[in-house]
Structure formats: structure tokens, C-alpha cells
């Protein structure tokens, strides 16, 4: 009389009504009796198994020490639940199956703003205002980039002085990244961690990574845009805190110290949820507030 689980096997809840992100690590994501489960301690006599409400979650972040079965991937795809393989506390992101999201409002809004030269500059100016604490009168992106670059140099110096770190400027050789001094190595690792968090935030909203408003050439341009919004509050804090630990004689390598520091900062400051909010803010998802004379006529 009642086929399946009251028809829930074919239900699909919109992401607007779901709870967002669910973090899982050190276990197996599998299907038992048609339901998604996460099993920990499978090699022990008393494994722990939790049922996962996959239809009410937008995205599952699968952390280290985890595996996923074919049936679990099939079930997630059927119900439009995203999954990303990430590092400890989302410090790195490795892959996310390209599932088709059930929402297009963010992507359409982003494409609309990006496709209009005036609106694109307006969004870029808004992002620079969030980073620099003031609205600059300039409308040329190269001029804005130059102003931001000079202020970032000052910011690096101030953060280094705050942490008691000797600072000789930003230097990075892509061909030999280990040739940089410890503060620059820490900055490289911290930037990678924050970009991973930004990638998770962008994926969770089904935004378009290539359509950046400040960055242009990378296929992850919008991810880089969002990561830069958190440079001072997150990236530099992580990097110089880790560099200070090295300076004090910590035995761990600088990349391990950065990952550990990033995990603490991400959790304490709720970095990924904050990035999701920032994406909605810069794309003006609540309306065209602030577009002003930058709108198309």
C-alpha cells in the first residue's frame, strides 16, 4: 500500500530549504537499506553508524580517512546533494563531482553583473571597498589594482611587526617556492588554504568560478576574488602566526603549522559560512542595492 518510504525515495528538496554543509571524516559513506549512512570504526567489533539526512543537506564535505561507495555517489547524485573531498577542516579541497545544482539564481545574477561592463566595475569597486574600508572614486580596474597593491605592502609590514617577524617583502618563485623565506612560505600555504575554503563556498552556492570581477585569467577567478576578501582577517593571521611558531623553534614544518593554524581559524571564525554570506553580498542577491549610476541605462 505504501510504496518505498512514503515516496521519500523520489523526493527532492530545494537547496533553499536545506541546512547547508555537513562535515564527515574517518569513515565510510555508504548506503544501507536505501538510506545514506556514515560508518566509523568498520574494523572494530562495534562500528558506529550514523544515518545521514542527505535530502536536507546541500553539501557533504568528506574529510581525511574517508571513503565513499558507488551506491552513495549514485544516491547523492539522484537527490542533488553535492560532495567535496577536502583536507582537515576544509584547509584544502581536492575534488567535487560536477553535479547539476537545482538552483541557478546565483549563477544568473553573477553572469548578469559580469556581462555588463558598468556593473562589473561596480562589483569590483564594492569588493575593493570591503577590503580597503573605503569606497574609492576610481573606476579603472588597473588603477584600483595599483592602489590595492601598495596598501597590501603596508599591510604585510604591519602584520609582520605585530607578530614580531622580520619582513623583507613579498617574494615568490613559482619554479622554486621553497627558496622563499619562512614568512613568504607561510603566506603561500595560507593563501592556498583560504582559496580552498573559498572554492567550497563558491561550489556550495553553485556560483561560476571562472567569472571573476577583479581576477580575470584563472579558471578560478571568482574563487580568488572571494579569498582576497579575507586576506587581512584570515590569510595574514594564519601565515604570520605560523611563522612566529617557527621563529620560536617549533619542530613541525611550516606547512603543517599553517594547516593546523588554518583549521583553528576556520572553525573559530566560521570562515566558510562567512564567505557564503560575502558572495551573496557582493552579488547583491537581496536586490540591486547600491548599483547607482553604474547600472545599464
Automatic annotation (TrEMBL):
Top enzyme class: hydrolase
Coiled coil as UniProt keyword: no
UniProt-listed Enzyme Commission number(s): 3.1.-.-
Keywords: Antiviral defense, DNA-binding, Endonuclease, Hydrolase, Magnesium, Manganese, Metal-binding, Nuclease
GO MF annotation: an example: metal ion binding
GO biological process, one term: defense response to virus
Pfam family, one: Cas_Cas1
Signal peptide feature range: none
Binding residues for Mn(2+): 148, 215, 228
InterPro entries: Cas1 (IPR050646), CRISPR-assoc_Cas1 (IPR002729), CRISPR-assoc_Cas1_C (IPR042206), CRISPR-assoc_Cas1_ECOLI (IPR019851), CRISPR-assoc_Cas1_N (IPR042211)
Cofactor: Mg(2+); Mn(2+)
Summary of subunit composition and partner proteins: Homodimer, forms a heterotetramer with a Cas2 homodimer.
Function according to Swiss-Prot or TrEMBL: CRISPR (clustered regularly interspaced short palindromic repeat), is an adaptive immune system that provides protection against mobile genetic elements (viruses, transposable elements and conjugative plasmids). CRISPR clusters contain spacers, sequences complementary to antecedent mobile elements, and target invading nucleic acids. CRISPR clusters are transcribed and processed into CRISPR RNA (crRNA). Acts as a dsDNA endonuclease. Involved in the integration of spacer DNA into the CRISPR cassette.
Alphabetized HAMAP family for the sequence: Cas1 (MF_01470)
Membership in a protein family: Belongs to the CRISPR-associated endonuclease Cas1 family.
The protein's name in its UniProt record: CRISPR-associated endonuclease Cas1
Organism: Serpentinimonas maccroryi
Gene name of the encoded protein: cas1
Amino acid at each position: 500500500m505504501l510504496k518505498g518510504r512514503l515516496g521519500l525515495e523520489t523526493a527532492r528538496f530545494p537547496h533553499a530549504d536545506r541546512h547547508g554543509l555537513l562535515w564527515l571524516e574517518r569513515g565510510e559513506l555508504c548506503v544501507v537499506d536505501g538510506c545514506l549512512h556514515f560508518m566509523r570504526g568498520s574494523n572494530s567489533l562495534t562500528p558506529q553508524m550514523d544515518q545521514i539526512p542527505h535530502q536536507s543537506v546541500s553539501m557533504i564535505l568528506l574529510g581525511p580517512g574517508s571513503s565513499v561507495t558507488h551506491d552513495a555517489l549514485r544516491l547523492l547524485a539522484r537527490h542533488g546533494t553535492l560532495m567535496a573531498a577536502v583536507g582537515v577542516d576544509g584547509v584544502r579541497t581536492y575534488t567535487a563531482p560536477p553535479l547539476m545544482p537545482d538552483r541557478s539564481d546565483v549563477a544568473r545574477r553573477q553572469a548578469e553583473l559580469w556581462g555588463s561592463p558598468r556593473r562589473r566595475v561596480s562589483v569590483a569597486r564594492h569588493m575593493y571597498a570591503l577590503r580597503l574600508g573605503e569606497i574609492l572614486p576610481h573606476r579603472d580596474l588597473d588603477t584600483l589594482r595599483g592602489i590595492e597593491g601598495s596598501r597590501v605592502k603596508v599591510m604585510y609590514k604591519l602584520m609582520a611587526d605585530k607578530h614580531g617577524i622580520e619582513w623583507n617583502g613579498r617574494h615568490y618563485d613559482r619554479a622554486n617556492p621553497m627558496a622563499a623565506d619562512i614568512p613568504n612560505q607561510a603566506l603561500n600555504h595560507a593563501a592556498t588554504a583560504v582559496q580552498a575554503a573559498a572554492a567550497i563556498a563558491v561550489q556550495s552556492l553553485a556560483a561560476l568560478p571562472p567569472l571573476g570581477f577583479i581576477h580575470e585569467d584563472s579558471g578560478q577567478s571568482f574563487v580568488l576574488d572571494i579569498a582576497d576578501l579575507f586576506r587581512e582577517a584570515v590569510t595574514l593571521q594564519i601565515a604570520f602566526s605560523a611563522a612566529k611558531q617557527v621563529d620560536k623553534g617549533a619542530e613541525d614544518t611550516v606547512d603543517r603549522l599553517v594547516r593546523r593554524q588554518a583549521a583553528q581559524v576556520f572553525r573559530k571564525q566560521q570562515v566558510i559560512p562567512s564567505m557564503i554570506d560575502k558572495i551573496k553580498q557582493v552579488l547583491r542577491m537581496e536586490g540591486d542595492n547600491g548599483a547607482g549610476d553604474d547600472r545599464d541605462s
